[in-house]
Amino acid sequence: MRTVIVTGSAGLIGSEAVKRFANEGRRVVGIDNDMRAQFFGAEASTKKTRDDMIANVRSYEHYDLDIRDASAVAELYKRHRGHIEAIVHTASQPSHDWAARDPQTDFRVNANGTLNLLEAARKFSPEAPFIFTSTNKVYGDTPNRLPLRESPKRWEIELGHEYEPGIPETMSIDHSKHSLFGASKAAADLLVQEYGRYFGMPTVSFRGGCLTGPAHAGTELHGFLSYLMLCTVKNRPYRVFGYKGKQVRDNIHSFDLVEAFAEFIRAPRAGEVYNIGGSRHSNCSMLEAIDLCEEISGRKLTWSYEETNRIGDHIWWISDVRKFQKHYPDWRFRYSLREILEEIHRSVGDRAE
To answer: Residues 274-308: pLDDT tens digits?
Structure first.
């Protein structure tokens, strides 16, 4: 039976991928040991999503496996050798701040874990597309050198600048401050490229902006829109860090991202890289997001401002997705920013604690 391996299978992107490929009749082998609860606490646990998929997704097989365990990863691939159609790697330690607390764990999960998955793929399924959920943080703080102008609610790039449609893959990842998280993800990103270019494997790094959706278990350290709506609805205090709250993020729904994965699987390329995010289609500043959360929920958010920004944080990020759209012209955005937040609002539930 055609099999798709999904790491981080109970997380936001992983669970979307599980449902997407299972609905097409594939067997989906999920790897997830709920390290998110270790990173961010019980509220961020993915256990409920895992249990729901085990109970309700008929062709789903779950493995409580740690991707840092090279022998366990290899054994799993070996068990499914000859049937693996694709690998979708979404598992990670995803937070700047958490990485600084425990750099060893961050690097072992993000870099060494990715290496284990790639090496097992090379041995047991070298023809299967390998999709890596990378991040725009591989560019470090280089985007902060762009010429920006200030408006009442956001920072915006100067009119007519070559990056006005968004930041392309040609931006350098060198000579910048990445955060330790950005560095570990950059190491993994380069490994994915190298296995594609050196060994001729069909690999891709999708360098995402803000990935979001109703299945996101948002926390203060990770999950911008989800956590913002949660705080708005449940009357929790929210902190804005630096840049006057005018920092801009593009936001892509998990559905739209997984559809991009599916397009790549249909026509894979070797060692490819794509910036992927909401682009000019779906983006907002912190202040704009607060306004929209309040409008959708009918509640006021209690928030405070801290002048110090997070290390390696971007002032303005909008992804230029035109390279991916050129290679895969059938891919289209399904969700707007408002639709994303309306779905998140419904998932949070409009009730105060």
So the answer is: 999 999 999 999 999 999 999 999 999 999 999 99
333 CB-near residues (< 8 Å, 6+ apart): 252, 256, 278, 281, 282
Neighbours of 264 (CB within 10 A): 24
What is the 8-class DSSP label of residue 108? I
Distances (CA, A) of 321 to 97, 165, 178, 248: 28, 9, 22, 17
DSSP state, 352?
A: -
**Rounded distance between C-alpha atoms, residue 305 and residue 244, angstroms:** 8
Confirm if 132 and 90 have CB atoms less than 8 A apart: no
For 191, the enclosing helix (H) or strand (E) is: helix 179-199
Q: What is the pLDDT of residues 3-34, one digit of tens each?
A: 999 999 999 999 999 999 999 999 999 999 99
The DSSP bridge partners found for residue 88 are: 6, 131
Phi, psi of 27 (to 5 degrees): -80, 135
**pLDDT tens digits for 88-103?**
999 999 888 899 999 9
Tokens for 274, please give them. Answer: 């794509």
Environment class of 20 (CB within 10 Å of its CB; exposed 0-12, middle 13-18, buried 19+): buried
The token pair that represents 90 in the structure block: 């979404």
Q: Describe the crossing of helices 12-23 and 47-56 by its angle, rounded to 10 degrees.
A: 10
pLDDT computed for residue 350 by the predictor: 44
Cβ contact 276:257 at 8 Å? yes
Residues forming a β-bridge with 7:
31, 89
91 three-state secondary structure: coil
**Is there a contact between 324 and 331 (Cβ–Cβ < 8 Å)?**
yes
**CA dihedral over 95, 265, 166, 186, signed as positive or negative:** positive
Q: Please name which of 28, 105, 40, 97 lies closest in space to residue 66, comparing C-alpha atoms.
A: 105
Question: Is the distance from CB of 116 to CB of 75 less than 8 angstroms?
Answer: no
Tokens 């790549």 -> residue:
264
Please choose, from the candidates 345, 353, 233, 240, the residue with its C-alpha nearest in 3D space to the C-alpha of residue 303. 240
